Amino acid sequence: MPVAYNLIINYEAGWWMVDKAIYIILSIFDAAAMLALMCKLYRLPILMYAKRMSILVLIIAVVSYLLRIRLSLPYFDLPMQYVIFVLFFRYIIKMRFHYAAFIVAAGFITFTNIQLLVYYFYTATGAANSTILAAVSGIAVYIVQISTEAVVFVLCFLLWRFGYGWSFIILPPHNFAKKEKYTGFNMELIVSTIISVVVIVATVVFLHDGNSFPLIILVFICFGVSYYLSKKGEMEP
To answer: How far apart are CA 143 and CA 124, in angstroms?
Structure first.
């Protein structure tokens, strides 16, 4: 009996380690996919910042693991990721703060849209159900994550290959010596970003409660606003 008990304990401990390793690895790919999406949506180079971006995705993955798994604070995960991404674009890439906040918000919203569409595809086929919305591990969760990452990376490749994406944000580093007026289009970007941040926070609540219907409506509205402002930015002198 003690031998069997020890085998069970060792098996469970081994699976626990594997499960956590899978979580961190997929978190790295999640962060990399979001970062690539942010860059390719707004035609920002990736190779130029490859080393710094590699460190960023590792930091994002570790922070996500600590908040969700070690500290059991899932509500803080996405908001903290958002803050880290914005700080990266502002202080490492040297981009003006309102542009950094807007790009990160647009990337988050677009990524969430894709993930929800993937989730609905699998629920429609019976491969997943609403319980995975609040889950952090499990085969169904991993399948949705991997599928979302694959779709995002393919989308980023297509954006790069065919030269799509918005180009109204000039290539960093930005000139901070020049005063920026926060009126007109810039103010619209700021308001849109604030709305998107509220939706990102709401995303955590809705996903934790397993309620995706209000979420997908909010996310699609935010995506539409980001698309409209990005298109408007292309027409700005």
So the answer is: 14
Total count of residues recorded for the chain: 237
- The rounded Cα 124 to chain-centroid distance in angstroms is 24
E strand segments, 26-175: none
Q: What is the pTM of this model?
A: 0.89
Q: In terms of C-beta density within 10 A (0-12 exposed, 13-18 middle, 19 or more buried), how is residue 204 classed?
A: middle
103-148 confidence digits (pLDDT tens)? 999 999 999 999 989 988 888 887 777 667 666 677 888 899 999 9
Q: What is the pLDDT of residues 162-200, one digit of tens each?
A: 999 999 998 999 988 788 777 788 899 999 999 888 888
- Per-residue tokens: 222: 């935010």
Determine contact, residues 177/103, Cβ cutoff 8 Å.
Answer: no
Non-local CB neighbours of 18 within 8 Å, separated by 6+ positions: none
Token pair of 200 as six digits: 């990102």
Let me know how many helices (H) and strands (E) the chain has, helices first.
Answer: 7, 0
